[in-house]
Amino acid sequence: MAVQSWLHRLRAAGKTALLQDGKRKIHYQFEDGKEMAEEYDVKTGQLVSRRWREKNTLGGSGKWQVEVGDPSLPLPGPLESELIKESSSNPVFMRKDTLTSFQWRIRNLPYPKDVYSVTVEKEQRCCVIRTTNKKSVVLLAKNSLCLGNLSSFKDGKTQFSGNGLQSRRLWYYKKFPIPDLDRYQLPLDAAALSFTHTNNTLIITYQKPKEILAAEEELQKELKKIKAANSGDGDCKIQ
C-alpha cells in the first residue's frame, strides 16, 4: 500500500531532533542521499515548515527547497541559513498547512474573489489558479513597469491614453502540485478544494484525505518518541 510505503521510508530514514523556540525540529537523512527538514509547533503538533535538499552534480549538498512555510525566512541552526528576498509588490506564493488541510497563500493579489478560478487538473496531478477576467492596471507613465511579477502575470495588450498614462491588461496564472498526494499515491479530489480572498491574499484550501490524516497521526506518535535535544544542549539526538 502506497501510504504504508511512504511511512516505511520515513521510519527507515536517519533522524535527528531538536527543541528550539517552541518548535520540534526533525532532520531526515534518506538512503538515496535526500534530506528533509521539518518543524512542528510543540503545543499543537502542526507542521510549520518542510524543506528538501538533494546532492548536486558534484556530490555536495544542494540548496534547500521550500515545500511548506515562508520561503523568505532563513532555515536556522545546523540545517543552514538561506534568505530568499522578494519584491514587496510581487505576488508571493507560499504553503501554510493546518492540522486538517493543505493550504496555500498568494499575497499581493488585489482583485476580489470572483475574479479567480481555482481548479483541479487530475491528469496533470496539479491545481491551477487563473483570473477569469482580464483586469486593466493604470501605470504612472509610458514605459513604466506595472506592480507585480511579470513571470507570474501574463501580459495582454498595452494601451496609452491621451495624457500619456499607460494601461496594461494583466491576468494571473499559477500551476502547483500537492507533493503529499504524490508521495502517498492518492488521487486529487475537486470536492476537497476551496478558496477565499481577503486582505489582498488569495487563500486556497485542500482538505486532507482520511488516509493522510491517519498517517500523520501515526507519524507524530513516533516522532514524539525521539528524545530531542534542547537548543542549548549541543548535538541533536540521533535515531
Helix content: 10-25%
What is the terminal separation in angstroms? 25 Å
Mean pLDDT: 80
- The tally of strands reads 16
Q: Helix and strand succession?
A: HEEEEEEEEEEEEHEEHEE
Note the beta-strand portion. 35-45%
Commentary on this structure:
By secondary structure, the protein is mainly beta. It has 3 helices and 16 strands. Strands 1, 2, 3, 4, 5, 15 and 16 form a 7-stranded mixed β-sheet that branches. Strands 8, 9, 10, 11 and 12 form a 5-stranded antiparallel β-sheet that branches. A hairpin with a 5-residue loop joins strand 3 and strand 4 (47-53). Helix 1 runs parallel beside helix 3. The chain is globular and about 50 Å long. It starts with a helix and ends with a strand.
Quick rundown:
The chain is mainly beta and 239 residues long.
Give keywords.
3 helices, about 240 residues, DPCD, seven-stranded mixed β-sheet
Secondary structure elements and pairings:
Elements: H1 2-12, E1 14-20, E2 23-29, E3 35-41, E4 47-53, E5 65-68, E6 92-95, E7 101-107, E8 116-121, E9 126-131, E10 135-139, E11 153-160, E12 166-176, H2 179-183, E13 193-198, E14 201-207, H3 210-223, E15 229-230, E16 237-238
Parallel strand pairs: 1-15
Antiparallel strand pairs: 1-2, 1-16, 2-3, 3-4, 4-5, 6-7, 7-14, 8-9, 9-12, 10-12, 11-12, 13-14
